[in-house]
Amino acid sequence: MSSSKETAKSLIQTKSRSSIRNMFDEVAPTYDFLNHLLSLGIDNYWRAAASSKAGKLLSGVREPRILDVATGTGDLAAAMAKLPGAKVTGFDLSPEMLSIARKKYPGITFLEGYAEQLPFEGASFNAVSAGFGVRNFENLEQGMREFVRVLKTGGCALIIEPMIPRNPVMKSLYLIYFKKVLPKVAAMFSKSSFAYDYLPNSVEQFPQAEAFTSILKKAGFSKADYYPMTFETSILYVAVK
């Protein structure tokens, strides 16, 4: 096993905040480019789908307050900010990612910190969103409890994650791309080779579909559903407090 894959395996096992933060700081300069390249630009559609769903759930709320956790370079926060009257706060543990987000979207407030210790009062937000980030939480269950805590009653969480297709043929093709092709392409542009070995393995380890909605309900959400997207290569979770 290469040192890159060993590093990725160790990171999946520990999920230490400092290691995750360092990884995202390292990939920040090429993060947006590789996201669009490796998803063939479909990542923009996934964010738009989450924003559209949020708009429907918040249709009766004037000036909804939205918290985008694991905001990265701010693309999902920006999609949420397009909703009528929305006041959006982006939140992430990586200062380098946040530096890029602030330059891209100066009209949005971006704060640094950890998802398991959100620095907000209870019942502060109408919605919490997270795009491709909750699987990196050091403590997933605690992070989901924090989502519930900061949401107002009736508020919603919208979480996008990569999905491993359940169809055997699609799953086989997907894993070949995800585990063989993607890391090699990413290594051509990013100085962090282990980050893109970590990515497919972290997706494999993350509870998906019914397994994750069970975690959401256990955390305190009254309702949780999931919506596979693009041949089950991505999945949108929607939970209501």
Low-confidence stretches: none
Helical stretch tally: 9
The CATH architecture name reads: 3-Layer(aba) Sandwich
Note the beta-strand portion: 15-25%
Explain what you see.
By secondary structure, this protein is of the alpha/beta class. The chain has a single domain, classed as 3-Layer(aba) Sandwich (Rossmann fold), CATH 3.40.50. The protein has helices at residues 3-14, 17-38, 42-57, 75-81, 95-104, 140-150, 168-187, 195-205, 210-219; strands at residues 65-69, 87-92, 109-112, 125-131, 151-162, 223-229, 234-240. It has a seven-stranded mixed sheet with strand order 3-2-1-4-5-7-6, sandwiched between helices. Helix 2 crosses helix 5 and helix 3 runs parallel beside helix 4 (75-81). The longest helix has 22 residues, at 17-38. The model has no long low-confidence stretch (mean pLDDT 91).
Features:
241 residues, alpha/beta, Rossmann fold, seven-stranded mixed sheet, 9 helices
Structure at a glance:
The chain is built from nine helices and seven strands; from the N terminus they run H-H-H-E-H-E-H-E-E-H-E-H-H-H-E-E.
List the helices and strands and how they pair.
Blueprint: H1 3-14, H2 17-38, H3 42-57, E1 65-69, H4 75-81, E2 87-92, H5 95-104, E3 109-112, E4 125-131, H6 140-150, E5 151-162, H7 168-187, H8 195-205, H9 210-219, E6 223-229, E7 234-240
